[in-house]
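User: Show me sequence and structure for the first protein, then do the same for the second.

Assistant: Starting with the first protein.
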Amino acid sequence: MSEMLEVRWHGRGGQGTVTAAKVFADACLSGGRYVQAFPEYGPERAGAPLKAYNRISSQELRMHCPVLNPKIIIVADPTLLDSINVTEGAPDDAIFIINSSKDPSIIRAKLNVSKKQKVFVLDATKIAIDSFGRPMPNSPLVGALARVSGAVSLETILEDVKKSFGKKFAKKIIDGNLEAAKRGFEEVKEG
């Protein structure tokens, strides 16, 4: 991992996007990194577009400003590709992780990104439905981010999912989220 990794998440209220950013940050913290995770809300209602951010570093983080040029951009709701510019501020070597059932080449063309920029796709919503019965793409996306970024191991992610969800949910939901994170790690594909 480079000195500092900045991540921007795009989602809609109620999809678990903010929770995903927090879970990823907690896992990186458990893995010995310095972390920040913070949301940016618009109208605070279910279904409204929102952004969440991560900063991960091997050194203490002293900056407390918005993430303007994220190395990794994650889109939890593919309908946002039609309504907002998710590529805004993306550097030449940006990495995109998109929740979609479409072929990665179609997503790459839709994003209109350069050849240097990487596009990864996984059907996180289907994985979530298969794993725990709800269309919440957050756990599969956390698994995919762990794989693509290399910032934290899958084992650490799974331990932190257990910790984060263990106090709030039944064992069946926790086990489903663990399966979803593992499948996200395994099934994400580059396009």
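Switching to the second protein now.
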Amino acid sequence: MKKISVKVNSFVKRQIRGSGKSYAIDFSFDKMAKHAEERLNKPGKHIFKGYRDGVCLVRAKKKYSKYFFCPLVKINSKTLLTSKVVKRRKNEQFYIQTRALNGTPEKAYHVDFILYRHDVLAENREHSTCADWELISFNVLPKGFDSMPMGPITMMRNQLQLPGGTAAFYSSEEWAKSVNFWQQYAFLDC
């Protein structure tokens, strides 16, 4: 059987310290892609189906979670929030991004690498390599979380097939779970 290749997509490179997103500490993007490739080539319970065909999540070995930072904070009555109008890329629409200004970040427990198959990225010419799969993002999950719901803005972009979105349709339950989760948690603005 042919070995499946995984390389780094340029989109994941926005997940760095200071971005307000999950990021790696002393664990390169290339190392992430290599680890995801190793895990993808060994079928098992560490591979999860994504929101559509051609998207999957590959859970990193537990020992690697110590190399990742999770900026997720639980919102409470003392949480200070800030919102600003931003866009991820030049060709995308602006959106309102909300971040927590205070709170204690959750400790990294699991890391899920989000991979898109080459043909899915090619739909919008968003591939960076010729690899079978590309690492486009990663989620750092706290203890007690088996997964992290996609953000409603990302879901909207995908379902409406706006620039930067990847065609998908979500059920009303998926929408409700996303909104419910992101009303209880926010990323720390750090």
